[in-house]
């Protein structure tokens, strides 16, 4: 059984999802804020999404983490590696809950996820799929050094932009600062 490892950054703890996360998780997916990532959704659908987040670790050996503030333990989002059926390739995805945007949490957690993908899983590259009107996610991708690559037509979500992140080799050859 694959369990999500705990990753700590300067301000955040990335950990596996737990049943106790459901009320906050479900509230996010019931809100308009979730419109770019499968919502708004009824709690019954949110339950299935939470089970999918947990199950992805079992099926793929990697997945997305519950992102919490290290000093309070408060759940503020889900960030991590995602590759369900129908995706063009593995991605880094980020969803930050209401009231926590604009603080750099998505970027901090996504960089930790990318580092895990490259250093632990041995991936050479990764993408992020972003809905065209989602300017906030595009800003996070740019901060990480990602660039728009092409469009992808998802069977359920429609047109999505593929943003290619700096490769593991690019990061080793000069880091993100060399490409910003």
TrEMBL record:
Keywords: Transferase. GO terms for molecular function: acyltransferase activity, transferring groups other than amino-acyl groups. Residues 12-173 form the N-acetyltransferase domain. Transmembrane segments: none annotated. Gene3D superfamilies: 3.40.630.30. It comes from the Bacteria. Pfam families: Acetyltransf_3. This is RimJ/RimL family protein N-acetyltransferase. It comes from Donghicola tyrosinivorans. The lineage of its organism: Bacteria, Pseudomonadati, Pseudomonadota, Alphaproteobacteria, Rhodobacterales.
